[in-house]
Amino acid sequence: MAHAELLGDRIMVQATWNENEQIKLVPGALWDNRNKMWTVPLSWAAGVQLRGVFGPSLTIGEHLREWVKFERAARVDPARELRNLVRPVDG
User: Fold this and answer.
1) pTM of the model
2) How many whole angstroms from its chain centre is CA 37?
3) Which of 9, 11, 22, 73 maximizes the CB count within 10 A of its CB?
4) Adjacent-strand bridge partners of 78
5) pLDDT tens column, 48-74
């Protein structure tokens, strides 16, 4: 079972040896020989890719979970913004 956690400006992924081919499907995945783990760029897209590759078997660490909450809150809902722009004028 793979586990993802925040590590500086990257997401570290601890995966079993039989998950190595899966992690290679994530763009930007690099093997960190010093820490003996995979890393991927810290981005919303990378998180989506990891979930797509590993599905529900991917566990998320506390620090990465907090980053996701922050990112989700910071994202603007384009549909809501569009509705605000085309709101009818009172008159």
Assistant:
1) 0.75
2) 17
3) 11
4) none
5) 999 999 999 999 999 999 998 887 766
Pair of tokens at residue 57: 């078997």
Pairing outcome for strands 3-7 and 30-32 = unpaired
Buried b (16+ CB within 10 A) or exposed e, 11-24: bbbbbeeebeebbe
**What number of H helices and E strands is found in the chain?**
4, 5
Which residue matches tokens 């994530």? 26
Q: What's the helix, strand, coil split of the chain in %, to 5?
A: 45, 20, 30
For residue 65, what are its two tokens? 């979970």
Spatial contact of 51 and 65, defined as CB atoms under 8 Å apart: no
Side chain identity at 5, as an amino acid letter? Answer: E
Q: Are 13 and 37 in contact (CB under 8 A)?
A: yes
